[in-house]
Amino acid sequence: MPHCENFAPIILTGDRPTGPLHLGHYVGTLKNRVAMQRSHRQFVLIADAQGLTDNADNPDRIRRNVIEVCLDYLAVGVDPAYTTICLQSSLSALNELTLFYLNYVTVARLERNPTIKDEIRTRGFGRDIPAGFLCYPVAQAADITAFKATVVPVGDDQVPIIEQTNEIVRRINRQAAREVLPEAKAVVPKIGRLPGIDGERKMSKSQGNAIYLSASRDEIGTAVRRMYTDPGHLRVSDPGKIEGNIVFTYLDAFDPDVDAVADLKASYRHGGLGDIALKQRLEQVLETLIAPIRERRAELARRPDDVIDVLRQGTKTSRFVTQQTLSEVREALGLFILA
Amino acid sequence: MPHCENFAPIILTGDRPTGPLHLGHYVGTLKNRVAMQRSHRQFVLIADAQGLTDNADNPDRIRRNVIEVCLDYLAVGVDPAYTTICLQSSLSALNELTLFYLNYVTVARLERNPTIKDEIRTRGFGRDIPAGFLCYPVAQAADITAFKATVVPVGDDQVPIIEQTNEIVRRINRQAAREVLPEAKAVVPKIGRLPGIDGERKMSKSQGNAIYLSASRDEIGTAVRRMYTDPGHLRVSDPGKIEGNIVFTYLDAFDPDVDAVADLKASYRHGGLGDIALKQRLEQVLETLIAPIRERRAELARRPDDVIDVLRQGTKTSRFVTQQTLSEVREALGLFILA
């Protein structure tokens, strides 16, 4: 990673507040944020402005979920003493950087972005893609660079956005003839994406296949009972398959007793372990994980002003950081500064 | 003009600071600004951020010309006591509005914009058009609406941008179920565009066919001598043509003595009026117009801090106005407001 030697590692990560967070987020990112927050300077951005790029008709959904997402962060142990949680739409420097950067990126380049291509297909936008949606990788470049983030945890599908960011960084540094901004490194988690309870590749609210961090014991039980196992495993005594068996995928992801899971797998393969017993174990594992999160979340939800205070405080800190970067970029590009 | 009844007329106008202003600007807009400033609330925006959309490689050009353009305004009589002169890049609300609005406009709609189509052709951008340039009609919609402008003086080629603005206004008002923003009316000046001294349709720095508001007597003389008249008018006694005769076009635009110009036309048509005498008259007319502008401009240029103060003061006022509009739009759309 060239050009990063002079910068302490800074992490930028975040979520679009389109719904409360679920176990997929926990495995994919939240757990890492808690693990990393003492060894890195970490900013977590609640990306409400980005959420609007494909929810312009329903800003209400975005507004409501800002607090839900913030509650999820605090409940899993993201600690405002170490992690700066902030609200994207309250950081005006991000908008200005986005509009500068749009001058450095061609429309053709944006259209070639594989993330955008995929999402256009998934969301069925066709030629009527909102301009804000086409431009969102540039807005992400503004987010990343405004915090001078050098480490950006992303899903494998988001790697091209970090490449796009670094193209802009190099362009600006070249024009300024010095290192105004650091390049960022995409960090893709080793653990793959957690599938939905129906076995679909992605856990998501819209698919109705998610287990939320606020799930009650009953909701966990219902979800686990719905899980796909091995359709050929009809009797307890039959040998069963592990591959594609979502219950084992979840046990691998969440059961802390790795040896016990290995024994269960052997027994399931051999025959003699029933789905009901297996699911009871998973249900207990998930309840053990979620119960304290659910309780902290409920306790915090009774003090919404304290939660908003966390967000306000983090946003203030982030405003200093991002305005400082904006000033440096404006000066480096030689804009007219009206002191 | 529907939806405007509740708003006092507000004018928004401005220039991209890509070079000092010339007689084309004077005829097309500056003269009107001076005439309108006591009967309207008038904002004049020095559009440096927009200037960057196709000058990202050369921000220096934009920065240098901010003061040049401001000097031109003051020199022609735009009076900061009546007109608020402000700097676009110092008004962060404009960026935020632009990014909101981009969510309401499809890429296909931007590409259909005839102004954009024309300019892509003229500037030779092809598919490598900068994204910022494609989006600039939306940035103009942000400018216009941020000031709640209801009257926008534009060239006939810019009318589609006002239509685009009003589409966004209606979209937001519909979503908010009330009139958050007024629609704007494009006002196209009755006097056509002033051609360059070479007879080209447009006076422009890049064509080298402009007479600047800072032109010396010598520069005026040289420019007038270069002007295209009637190539068939070889001897003084020959009958000459008025149509396409740039000297008469300029006399029509600038000579206050309309009757005298009518007599000159008759005499030129009939034969007996030479190009030299005609050009001497025009030179004197232009010198009479430009001399006081040139002197005021030179005098102001010796006090750059005072000029910057005018810009700073106007920008502060504009910041209040535009932030207020931004707050109203954010509230109307139901964003999360972090007080």
Automatic annotation (TrEMBL), chains A, B:
Catalytic activity line of the entry: tRNA(Trp) + L-tryptophan + ATP = L-tryptophyl-tRNA(Trp) + AMP + diphosphate + H(+)
Keyword check for DNA repair: no
This protein's GO CC annotations: cytosol
Entry-linked Pfam families: tRNA-synt_1b (PF00579)
GO molecular function ontology, one term from the record: ATP binding
InterPro entries for the chain: aa-tRNA-synth_I_CS, aa-tRNA-synth_Ic, Rossmann-like_a/b/a_fold, Trp-tRNA-ligase, Trp-tRNA_synthetase
Domain of life: Bacteria
EC number: 6.1.1.2
Enzyme class per UniProt: ligase
Alphabetical UniProt keywords: Aminoacyl-tRNA synthetase, ATP-binding, Ligase, Nucleotide-binding, Plasmid, Protein biosynthesis
CDD domains: TrpRS_core
The keyword Nucleotide-binding appears for this protein: yes
GO biological process, one term: tryptophanyl-tRNA aminoacylation
Recorded family membership: Belongs to the class-I aminoacyl-tRNA synthetase family.
PANTHER family documented for this protein: TRYPTOPHAN--TRNA LIGASE, MITOCHONDRIAL (PTHR43766:SF1)
Record's protein name: Tryptophan--tRNA ligase
Chain's gene name: trpS
